[in-house]
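pls read this stuff:
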Amino acid sequence: MSVGGLKALLEDCTQCGLCREVCIVERLGAQSITSFLCGNSDYSSWLCSSCLRCQEVCPQDVDIHAIMMEKRREEEPPAGYRGNMANVLRSGYALVIDDGVNEMRRVHGLEAVELVPGEWVEALLTQPREQEKGA
């Protein structure tokens, strides 16, 4: 999406701050989401948890989530996210599941986590994109 497209999404924003009041990330100390939306902060779109609470309260129906996702497409993900994405592509899980994790699960009376075959993960992650291209 172009800069003009992002600006068009923001045209109706009155900076009322309702999104800030409900943002769980901002409650944890992140910079202002409204400053970010207006291009005035270093807030990263990668901090957004995609809970959509901002969407629920926005009186102007600004598609804040779409803006965050578009910004993610424009930004390089932080190192920690890249590691998690690599794990998802490899195993289907964001975190590494190893014998230590399964031992801890056993101690707590939980079943071991069984990793899905890599080709299943690949199919799940690539099939929707291929369907989008055909639509």
Summary: The CA atoms of residues 31 and 43 lie 6 Å apart. The two ends are 19 Å apart (CA to CA).
